[in-house]
Amino acid sequence: MIEQIQASSGFLKERGVLQPEVGVILGTGLGGRFVAAIGDPLVIPYSEIPHFPNAEASFHQGKLIYGDVRGRKVLAMQGRFHYYEGFSMQEITFPVRVMKALGISRLLISNASGNMNPSWRKGELMLVDDHINLQPDNPLRGISQQYFDNPFPDMSEPYSKILNQKLSAIARKKNIKLHVGVYVAVSGPNLETRAEYRFLRGIGADVVGMSTVPEVIVANHIRLPCCAVSVLTDDCDPENLKPVKIEEIIAVAAKAEEPLTELFVELIAEM
């Protein structure tokens, strides 16, 4: 893995990705507005990067975008990888390790998630304060620990308190509704049954999704401060559950892009 990380980062340096400060992972249906905010962008398809997962297996855009946001060098993933698409946990999280090798010191993550909190509504945003991992594998399993000095990373504070405080302050200043809660990660790709929503809510989760947690685990493994914001794309009330289509989820996510982008851009400027 170390050799693959070096090969990927070396290739990107040769292409002009030099000293990025902030990494960004853009979730399902998200990214257009944030990408538009990147000045003088350098766009590199995942397919050109040595050892990157095969993005053709994913229905997301597969592009790495490097450029300037409010005076900071940013490296953004437009399109992430998911366990339900058949990728291994190591493949899903490999780009995080490459971005750290290139020099990023902060990681910002967005995702689309189902809302299980009856006090909230779809289209709103939630700052992830903690998570519950129900995915069936772990990105650290089987990794040779001789190459890492943090074999059992502590997860008592998986999301940076400093970054979360900054995001909350920005949201208040800009009058953006930003809930704070718990994200639960499942494998997917199916959505949940009524009984499963009751169970997930009962164990302490506010929203449910199929991503983010693997990347956060690896970020903590390599001591990379991170934060995550969920876009609530559908309401998951088990007593009033209605069918939902992926097209509807993406449409709701697109509408929430503006406040999400505003939060991330302002946070980058304040770093």
Tell me what you see in this structure.
The protein contains eight helices and nine strands. It has helices spanning 2-14, 32-36, 89-102, 161-173, 194-202, 213-221, 246-255, 257-270, and strands at 22-26, 39-45, 63-69, 72-78, 106-115, 125-133, 178-185, 207-209, 226-235. The model has no long low-confidence stretch (mean pLDDT 94). The two termini are 30 Å apart. Helix content is 32%, strand content 24%. It has a five-stranded mixed beta barrel, surrounded by four helices. Helix 1 crosses helix 3 (89-102), helix 3 crosses helix 6 and helix 4 packs across helix 8 (257-270).
Keywords:
five-stranded mixed barrel; 24% strand
Based on DSSP secondary structure assignment, what is the total number of beta strands? 9
Indicate the structural class: alpha/beta
- Binned strand content: 15-25%
Q: What's the assembly state of these chains? A: single chain
**Strand arrangement in the largest pleated sheet:** 5-8-7-6-9
| Number of alpha- plus pi-helical segments | 8
Radius of gyration: 18 Å
The span between the termini is: 30 Å
| Percentage of residues in helical conformation | 25-40%
Main beta sheet: 5 strands, mixed, barrel
- What number is the mean pLDDT? 94
- N-to-C order of helices and strands: HEHEEEHEEHEHEHEHH
The gross shape turns out to be globular
Q: Which segments are poorly predicted (pLDDT under 50) over 5 or more consecutive residues?
A: none
Brief write-up:
With 271 residues, this protein is α/β, with parallel strands linked by helices. 32% of the residues lie in helices and 24% in strands.
